[in-house]
Amino acid sequence: MNGLGCVALAVLASCGSSRPPAPEPAAIAPIAVTKPAEPAKPVIPDTAAGHTLAAWLDAFNSGDSARMKEVVGRYKDPMGFRIVNFREETGGFDLVAIEKSEPSSITFVVKEKASATEEIGWLRVADGDPAVIESFMLVVIPPDKTAADIRTELAAETAARIVDAIAKALNASYVYPAVAKKMEQAIREHLEHGDDKAIATGPDLASALTHQLQEVSHDRHVRVEWLARTAPPGNGAPSDEDKREKEQLERMNCGFVKTERLDGNIGYIKLDVFGPADVCGAKATEAFAALGGVDAIIFDLRDTGGGAPDMVTYVESYLFAKRTHLDDIYTRDDNKTTPSWTNPSVPGKKLATQPVYVLTAARTFSAAEAFAYDLQSAKRATIVGEVTGGGAHPSRPIPLDDHFTISVPFARAINPVTKTDWEGKGVEPDVKVPAGQALDTAKQLAADKLAKRHAARK
What we know:
Elements: H1 3-8, H2 48-62, H3 65-75, H4 83-90, E1 93-102, E2 105-112, E3 118-126, E4 132-140, H5 158-173, H6 177-192, H7 202-217, E5 223-226, H8 240-251, E6 256-262, E7 266-271, H9 277-291, E8 296-300, H10 309-316, E9 325-331, E10 336-341, E11 356-360, H11 367-377, E12 382-385, E13 395-399, E14 404-409, E15 411-414, E16 431-432, H12 438-457
Parallel strand pairs: 7-8, 8-11, 11-12, 12-16
Antiparallel strand pairs: 1-2, 2-3, 3-4, 5-14, 6-7, 9-10, 9-15, 13-14
Helix pairs in contact: 2-3, 5-6, 6-7, 9-10, 10-11
């Protein structure tokens, strides 16, 4: 073998050389690759509050509206009327941590499945079988903070200071001045009797004050909330919360859960929130365009907890051929009444002559009730389902300090036909059936009406 071949094979043999063969290279031990340990999942404690939280999260994350409503009813969640909307906004929750646990209360952190947003929650229950939710609050953790930064402890003078601030806000803006005075008297009496003395955290104080105010006013739009940080005074620019709400609306298709044609050429729109018209008006136009030339239409508002008055008017405008006066709004601030009319120039095809049916439930509230009440009073729709929640007062948040805000109803609706509204009473359906039967009932009503129309044309 020539020298070149010997060089080529040197790694395998000596090629006739008298030198001893090179030693075998030492074996290289395989490198062990260790996967990073996954963080341990938080364990919900075996307490009354823990059991309640576990059941709530399980139903909430299922996305099954029937399961969510069952849990709300079982534990008497005071804010349960919004649970379906809340699920759509967040996409559900991943439990991140249990911050503090006692037998009747629990503090926890969750992350929204639909975004990177984390929220801190406080749940307190009363004894019972099952337990009854006394207070339940979730607060967004600001992007520059962590759960550890959220301090909820109250100084001794906080309750008195917040009561003073609430009284000032209500007396300046609440739509009925006499009721504002009664609410002020009630919260001052609770303070003087020491009912707030044992309350140690901001969320618990907010919950207690909300209960005290609603007990007198019976107005579910009056709410005190505790926030990680209240919004600074408005300067015309969108706040972080405004941007977050807009992103949520866009992510949930502005509340248009379903738009479809049912058998018999009946249109169906399930709308779970009336988003602001400047954000969501185009989605309404798309929904009507998708329905095309249906012969009747059903609006499903059984899970609708409210929304923006201008979106109510925008959707209503597709149901009238000409400009129609549907509502007036009286505002306490300027002592003026402003009429609300449909817009005859909304884009696309209208359904101005087709029969309209609106499905309602006890949890149908606020702007959704306005939609039903307006159309019922104008004899433009048949309301099918349950008596609604009874909230007719538009409200706005007023900061009380760096953490507390109060939602103050500053206006009321005045219907041009009834000369009143549905506050405290709800909208009475034309055809009263359990909410679960409302859709089938409305479909049958529509089919019967269309059959009569077709027969009359022959």
